[in-house]
Design goal:
The complex is a heterodimer.
Chain A (H helix, E strand, L loop, with lengths): L1 E8 L6 H12 L12 E6 L5 H16 L5 E8 L1
Antiparallel strand pairs in A: 1-2, 1-3
Chain B lengths: L2 E5 L6 H12 L4 E4 L10 E4 L19 H11 L4 E4 L1 H8 L6 E3 L7 E9 L15 E8 L3 E3 L2 H9 L3 E6 L18 E5 L5 E4 L17 H12 L1
Parallel strand pairs in B: 1-2, 1-3, 3-4, 4-11
Antiparallel strand pairs in B: 5-8, 6-7, 6-9, 9-10, 10-11
Helix pairs in contact in B: 1-5
Classes of the chains: A alpha+beta, B alpha/beta.
């Protein structure tokens, strides 16, 4: 199976890169951009065929390496 | 007494810090490759600056899981002094030896210049040769030096006197203008709760010899040399 992981900054954590993107978009005359938050997207191919087990494995990966939970949240999607 | 300097792929301050350590201790440190699983007998461990693993994922995140880091964590937990400079600070934070994280600089720019630091703790094994409140000038050179910790952790750090250095102006005032990277409370360096692990973004080893243009960094290595010789 495949795991898709979105890693995003927690609310309240300043995101200077998101702010810079927002300013660049304004510079390109894209009006109406209220806020930009930048994150990461990671895809992992797994040999595991059970979705629940796969989710547990990937959660562990997120906690130990993929995300830093001081500032980041992660969201896991398991797809066949 | 022997010192170990950990070397990762992408470390680039390992030799500078080795020179500073040899000058202070009279003995070349052991250079320990990150894939080793055991440390030599040593009374001080230094995790140097650089760009280990090209800063992939997050600065220090990959290096924090190197085989040698298990041994470093074990030694840190039994009281061996561990000094992390720049990328070394990032690695120690990612390894969980120090709280918080170093985020992208608020300016989004790589900052490479001399900064003024105020010594907040002169009673540690690292800072014993400085005076409390002394101001020293050493360089920073980083893209990810913006120290962040959640409110509760920050309170614990401040209440516990775990802030070792703060960015300040030449008069020792801690101001937003003197903050090169957006670090919370102008934090430039922190200690663990036991005081035997120090992480700092500025580079004392880069101004530790008159030939380099300044010696404000040298007392740190002198203090460490004295502590481990005792």
């Amino acid at each position: 199976m495949k795991a898709r992981i979105h890693i995003t900054l927690k609310n309240g954590v300043l995101d200077p890169q998101g702010k810079a993107i927002q300013q660049a978009l304004a510079g390109l005359a894209f009006d109406g951009v209220e806020d930009v938050r930048q994150g990461k997207f990671i895809e992992i191919e797994l040999t595991e065929s059970d979705a629940d087990t796969a989710r547990v494995q990937v959660s562990d990966m997120c906690e130990k390496l993929l995300a830093n939970t001081v500032i980041e949240n992660y969201d896991i999607e398991i797809v066949a | 007494m022997p010192v170990a300097v950990i070397v990762f792929p992408g470390s680039n301050c390992d030799r500078d810090v080795a020179v500073a350590l040899e000058t202070a201790t009279g003995r070349a440190p052991a250079m320990v490759w990150h894939q080793e699983s055991a440390l030599p007998a040593c009374d001080l461990i230094v995790v140097p600056g650089g760009f280990s693993y090209g800063d992939y994922l997050r600065s220090g995140a990959m290096a924090a899981h190197s085989p040698i880091m298990r041994a470093v964590i074990e030694r840190a937990n039994t009281g061996t002094p561990v000094l992390g400079i720049c990328n070394g600070f990032q690695i120690l934070a990612e390894a969980g030896l120090l709280p918080g994280i170093l985020m992208r600089n608020a300016s989004l720019k790589f900052v490479c210049r001399d900064v003024d630091l105020r010594v907040e703790r002169a009673d540690t094994v690292f800072t014993g040769a400085y005076a409390q409140g002394e101001i020293l000038r050493v360089p920073v050179a980083h893209h990810d030096g913006n120290y962040f910790a959640d409110a509760e952790t920050l309170q614990r750090l401040e209440d516990g006197g775990q802030v070792a250095f703060r960015y300040c102006d030449t008069g020792g005032n801690v101001t937003p203008e003197a903050n090169p990277n957006g670090s919370i409370n102008n934090i430039a360096g922190i200690l663990n709760a036991d005081g035997n692990v120090l992480g700092m973004m500025p580079h004392p080893e880069r101004l530790a010899d008159p030939l380099l243009g300044g010696i404000d960094g040298a007392p740190m290595f002198d203090a460490l040399a004295e502590a481990i010789a005792a």
